[in-house]
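Lab notebook page, bench 4
Experiment: in silico fold of construct C2
Operator: M.H.
Input chain length: 186 residues
Purpose: comparison with the prior construct
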Amino acid sequence: MNIIPTSLKEVLILEPRVFGDQRGYFLETYQRRRYAEAGIGAEFVQDNISFSRQRTLRGLHFQHPNDQDKLVQVMEGEIFDVAVDVRRGSPTFGQSVAVTLSAGTHRQLFIPRGFAHGFCVLSPTALFMYKCSDFYAPPHEAGICWDDPDLKIAWPLKDPVLSERDRAFPRLRDIPADRLPAMVDE
């Protein structure tokens, strides 16, 4: 597995080894020992799949408390994926990483707890799979508006298809500090 650092040291791009021949290919999408050796020691407890149509934008989502590490990948199609540091006290608070993920490259993105996550679909459809290190907790879900000007995310579309919930999220600066995870336990 190849590990590619990003501008936010905690967020990693992972390229699994792909074994292919005339029949097709095989790859491991997760193997606990190998990922732990790469610095990803999260214990994943839930897998999710999201199917979306072109121009759909989901996010920017996070949970607090019940913060989640996420390991995300595209099984079909192509997306523009974003992770935003929302940890109060972090020197990179409000900074983001954006990566294009596709079924063709098999790349994954590791998004640690304390980061908001969102993506938009670039292909006609996309099948998106992600592992989470804590269970979905509706009372603790939160989000940031996708077009928060302070975040300066260069989304590749201007008029995405959004859910009503995602459309109503506030700017990061308008979220009370106690609703954001801390850089370290306080």
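Observations: Helices lie at 32-37, 164-167. Residues 24 and 120 are 28 Å apart (CA to CA).
Next step: discuss at group meeting.
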